[in-house]
Fold:
Amino acid sequence: MLKTLSIKNLAVIDALELDCGAGFTALTGETGAGKSILIDAIGLAIGLRADAALVRSGNDRAEISASFDLAAGTPACDWLAAQEMLDADEPELLVIRRVVYAEGRTRAFVNGAPVNAGQLRELGETLVEIFGQSESQTLLRSATQREILDDSGVAIATRTAVAAAASAYAQAERALERLRAAGERDPAQLEFLRFQLGELEALGLGDDELEQIEAEHRLLAHAGRLLSEGAQAQELLYGGENSVYDQLGRIQSLLDGLVPLHEGFQGVLDATESALAQIREAADDARRVLDRLDLDPERLADVERRLGAIHDLARKHRIKPDELNTRLAELREQLAAAGDAAGQRAELERALAAALQAWRDAAARLSAERRKAAKKLGDAVTARVRPLGMPNAQFAVVIETDAESAPRAYGADSVRFDFSANPGQPLRPLARVASGGELSRVSLAIQVAAMSKTSAPTMIFDEVDAGI
Structure:
């Protein structure tokens, strides 16, 4: 529960200290007195988006501090424990501080530890719920009424099962549509697909052939250079006039005469002898490579023709050469689907029917849970709205189920809030009968009743008495 709120340099507020007692607190005042600024301050403390324009004119920053009393085992306590931010001395106390700078940046601290905006929002959702002035109007929407009912007493697993079943049905329906489209292709289009498939099959491109043939082409295209420069390198290493091997041999002879005179040359001699062996080995390797080179000009012509055919067909299909085999597989699948459309259609139709039945079963379970929750919510709202100046008010949640409904993620039900303010007046849809003041009071009662299971111990209502 919110315990204290401290504000400095926020909008019209220079400095303010607010203490909140247990239970209900009302803040009243004339328009422009700063009530909405207090709501903004609490929003900043729980991680809502900060606006630098809120910093009081002439100051470089605004600062908001909020302290909360925590009960053990609450979601807020669990979050703090997981983040290792519980105060070891006072685990029941939480202090949040947020600083908004005039240049736009913000900083936030939880029990003295810095946190980012995302972390602060996560924690804030477990602490405070803020209901704005527009809540009573959104209450008139059918989707909002359904969500309120579901949140008040329908298991999340039940709702998730219906949404998953609706998604599975949609996927099966799309698969059947694709098959129907494939089976209804124009005969000329199918003939063109067969022609394209025949070209690709005639090419007969192997899985790794393109990479191999490109490597071979690079080799054959540089035949002259490989032979001439390779032979030159081999002669410079060994065998040619004044080769590296011969020069190292002369150095070795010189060192043989110096070692007896100074042992320090022994290391130089050893390195030279090692170099001689490596040069000889390198020259032998070069000769073996040259001996194995098979640089047939006719083979080069064959390779260039093969590469040309591959690239020509890739350009024809407007794809990269390495995508030709993928395209081949796609064409085969398309023709196979067109040829076996009847058999596959029967199978997909059975799958679609099974998906529809699965959704209807899940939707029926959801409807049953909604009817139980509707009675409880109706009674709870009625009990809460009567003390708000309407002692004879009646509130009910009406559920209408369309047994023939197409699968929808939220089930087969339409949910409607019905209301009667006076004795003898029949229950009618809330959107038609509630005046502005009645709607504000019903909205408050619904919010309190529906939020009775909430993990947020502090609820803030901004002008819920509008129209009263």
About this structure: The radius of gyration is 41 Å. The mean pLDDT is 85. The chain is about 55% helix and 15% strand.
